[in-house]
Amino acid sequence: MSTIIAGDVRPNAGDLVLARVDVLGKQTKLELTDGRRAHLFPGDEILVSYGNRYAPDQFEAVVSDDLSPCALVAAGGVAGVELARHLRVQPATQITPIGLVGDTSGKRINLAQFRIEASEQVPDLPVVLSLGTSMNAGKTLTSTSLVRGFKRAGLQVAALKITGTGAGGDMWIVRDAGADVALDFTDAGFASTYLAPIDDILAGAFRLINHAASLGCEVVVIEIADGLQQKETAQLIRSDVLRGLTMGCTFASYDAMGAICGVRELAEAGHTVLGISGRLGLSPLGVREAESATGLRYYSPFDLQDGLLVPVIQRRAARAFSESRFQRYSLHALAKAAMPPPPVESAPPVPPRGLAVPGTSAGLEIVPPGASQEAREMLAIVAGHLMDHEVVLCCGMGPGGHLTGRTNRRNGFRRLVWASGMGAIELRVPRLRHGTYIPSFLGTAVAPGDVEAVLRAPDACAREVALLGLLRTLGGPGLGRADAMRVAARISHLVADAVSAGPLAAMPPRMAWPGGDEAEARERAALDVSALDGDDEDAAELPGGVAEMSPGGAGARALSPPR
Questions:
Q1: Which one of 41, 266, 307, 552 has the fewest beta carbons within 10 angstroms of its own beta carbon?
Q2: Which range (202-216, 262-276, 321-335, 394-408) has the least confidence?
Q3: pTM for this one?
Q4: Which InterPro entries match (predicted)?
């Protein structure tokens, strides 16, 4: 800062301005460049930037026409004229501009002068989009969790946010999550992208992606701020160029209706929605509604951080790599895990079925002929449902319950590798506060044909009937139709016709069970409460004991610890 430009001047978005704090309001702190939030006091002089703001939960604001008093409309340091605010939000902090900041020649200084310089050509890195219904729906946590999942898979990851209003919080969290490159639109020269031309926003995004590529990144997670109805977001999701880079997107929402509408709108815009996420996960009932209506799985932050969505993205990258005319080699790092292995002269021996090995899957990756990746992923989802079902019986009730009937509690997870007969499958086995839970299905043989029968069923009814048979083979007769319907919703993305038709077109019709009773299905939909008659008091009384599920899922018994 060398000069102050005052008088009759019209500010532009991105111009730096020296201002005085007059009256404190919503913003009582100002975020500094190192992330520290400094307390503000009346009379303080602050250096901020003019910008527009779009935030339905807080303010709508635009750049002033002159240097008259205005407001600090974002704690990241954005000044503008407040047009509207949420009724529950107090007025913004009032400031008076002293003058624009200029260089030694008297020319105003703008954030665009400090942008990252890189090619604006259409980049080639694979992209995963994080979208949502609105601000605070859970997009940033979804992006952060995706970064963790990709890092777990050994990939170099860039985390970008290409729209919004300047603030450091979102960038700090993805950097903490392990992102190799963490950048946002401010690094592209914008204080805010609200009301910016869409071509300028895309050019800035391409500079950031190409810069990340030059630093060795192999995949990019991009968050687009606000909801699908916001002006710039609505234009971006309909950009053919941006859509052509993406391997798919996740969608965060508050509730089931938001998820349904968002998935439908994205499908109409030509996007492949890989899964739903966000604050919807706070409501198990909302998750069930959304999964049933969209045919998509809900991924919690922990699911994404464990990399459960990564194989789906890798398969899409492998398909895009094989179908590209000149083969996009930028996809190879992401896609190689899903590419078919080189042919071998003879099939390797199949490991013993039912073997469970704690820790790593090293040495158990032999996959027998006929066991497709989709089948193994489906089996992992089935195993997860069975473990949840059995742990409910061990504890006397589901997660979050506080009734007197509770006999135990969950206490995190442990990793277990299950040699299922279809190759090594890594499980996240729930821990119990008292005793040790061992899944009942570990010693049960699984035939690849039984799993493939579910995936290749001719219709939804046949698929769920086949799925019920598989569930009962692994978990016993205590499992019912409601269990099959829940698992069917969670594996819909693995069904062959779901990939080509899209999630909405592939939604299964309402199932008509042969000879079934709809009232019975509704009765069983409450997690088969009639089956919660097991007695696991002994397991709760023996901290060193082992809670083992019987094959029928009728209850738990305590085993003495090995001597």
A1: 41
A2: 394-408
A3: 0.67
A4: P-loop_NTPase, Transposase_mutator
Indicate the residue type of 70: C
Q: Tokens 């190759």 label which residue?
A: 423
Residue 334 CB contacts under 8 Å (≥ 6 apart), including other chains? 126, 155, 218, 219, 247, 313, 314, 317
More confident call, 203 vs 529:
203
What does residue 300 show for φ and ψ, rounded to 5 degrees?
-75, 165
Q: How far apart are CA 261 and CA 276, in angstroms?
A: 12
Could you give the CA distance from residue 388 to residue 270 in angstroms, rounded to a whole number?
Answer: 35
pLDDT top residue among 562 and 127: 127
Q: Is 218 helix (H, G, I), strand (E, B) or coil?
A: coil
Q: What Rg value do the Cα atoms of the chain yield, rounded?
A: 27
Average pLDDT of the segment spanning 405-427: 79
Cα-Cα-Cα-Cα dihedral of 168, 170, 171, 174, to 10°? 150
Structure tokens at 443: 């010693």
Both structure tokens of 288 = 């069930």
| Distances from the Cα of 392 to the Cα of 299, 438, 533, angstroms | 20, 13, 11
Any bridge partners for residue 357, and if so which?
417
Write down the number of H helices and E strands in the chain. 17, 22
Helix, strand, or coil (residue 347): coil
- Measured from the Cβ of residue 123, the count of other Cβ atoms closer than 10 Å reads 22
The terminus-to-terminus CA distance of the chain in angstroms comes to 74
- Report the length, in residues, of the chain: 563
> Cα–Cα distances in Å, from 238 out to 9, 228, 231, 241?
37, 10, 11, 9
Strands 70-74 and 93-102: antiparallel
How many CB atoms within 10 Å of residue 45? Answer: 10
Range 341-359 average pLDDT = 48
pLDDT at 278: 96
Enumerate residues 6+ apart whose C-beta is below 8 A from 448.
368, 370, 371, 375, 421, 422
What's the one-letter identity of residue 383? A
Give CA separation, 180 vs 74, 218, 223, 484, in Å: 27, 10, 16, 41
Query: Are the C-beta atoms of 430 and 443 separated by less than 8 Å?
Result: no
Beta strands 437-438 and 546-549 are: parallel
Per-residue model confidence (pLDDT) at position 398: 63
Residue with tokens 């009232």: 519
